[in-house]
Amino acid sequence: MTEELTRYWTSPPQVRSKDQIIAACRKPLSPNCIRMLYPYIPRRSLQGYSPRMGDGDTGAPPKMGGQGDAFQRREKASEDYAIRQREKEKLLLLKKRLAEQQAHLQQLSEHIDEITKEQGGEHN
Fold this sequence. Notes:
Layout: H1 3-10, H2 18-24, H3 31-37, H4 44-47, H5 70-119
């Protein structure tokens, strides 16, 4: 604890400027320092606070089970479309690879048939 902070702590509680409070502590402010300076924070500064966003505003968490506003629906539709497009691309790639593998298997099957005919082991 710094000397200045000790002086503030032992003096009767009074409102100090933000700069004086921060100067009393080492940087960055530790949780312990913040706890000790809590009595010096004016309570009136917090009374006029009101939340900027209400329920359903953009940025608020979505309501459970509700449809949401137009922006949320549009955003969800856009995300769903992008996911479907990626899945479609993956499916086309898989179909292409499957066709290549089937063609390769057909070539191998034909090659095996040629080898067995050349050896004449069976009546083909």
